[in-house]
Design a protein that fits this description.
The protein contains ten helices and no strands. It has about 210 residues and is mainly alpha-helical.
């Protein structure tokens, strides 16, 4: 990276840091381009030159929040069965979204789409492929579409939590339920029985929450 580009990147990071601090202090609607410029010690035109708009600064903040979340989704390989690892990725994702509520909730309420998160998709994809290789799941369906459908269920559950429609336990139950139903479509007999047992427990949780 050249000196000029290095300076640009440092200013971008200074702007993002200032914006995060303003959001934490004044709320998601309490910051302005002028406040960010003053806090980051740059001019307002510099903000527009480096990011383009207030919406793009906001999007970069949310990208950073969910990138941090995405990087924390490694599941211990001591979880032996790939199907269990897939469900563990979902559970860990729920925990990290809830733990980072000060950033994730406003992002979700603003319609931020975190489905582009590559690591979560990759971890789920790997777990499903390994489950197929080990005979826990059948290879009847395209793995990428199956995983995408399960991840969409996670996203819907996250938005429901952000809106206050469900508590963290309800978020977890909804997200796991969606993934289990997707896996059920390609489950072998033994795995099907196990998933049905998990699904029935989740149904009880969701019924109680309702």
């Amino acid at each position: 990276m050249g000196l000029r580009q290095d300076n640009i990147e440092r200013r971008r990071q200074r702007i993002l840091t200032a914006t995060r601090e303003l959001i934490e202090r004044d709320g998601v609607d309490g910051w302005s381009m002028r406040k960010v410029a003053d806090a980051a010690n740059v001019s307002v035109p510099t903000l527009y030159n480096l990011f383009g708009s207030k919406d793009e600064i906001r999007s970069a903040i949310w990208d950073g929040a969910f990138d941090d979340l995405d990087r924390g989704l490694d599941v211990d390989r001591s979880v032996d069965r790939p199907v269990d690892r897939a469900l563990a990725v979902v559970e860990r994702g729920v925990a990290r979204v809830v733990r980072g509520a000060d950033k994730t909730r406003p992002a979700l309420l603003e319609g931020y789409d975190f489905r582009k998160g590559p690591r979560a998709i990759r971890r789920l994809h790997t777990a499903v492929e390994e489950a197929i290789d080990e005979g826990q799941l059948r290879g009847d369906l395209r793995v990428d579409l199956l995983v995408a459908e399960g991840y969409e269920g996670f996203r819907r559950a996250a938005v429901s939590w952000a809106r206050g429609e469900v508590d963290p336990a309800g978020f977890r139950a909804k997200a796991l339920y969606s993934m289990c139903v997707c896996l059920l479509a390609v489950a072998t007999d033994d795995t099907r029985d196990e998933l049905l047992h998990v699904i029935r427990d989740l149904e009880s949780e969701l019924s109680g929450a309702a």
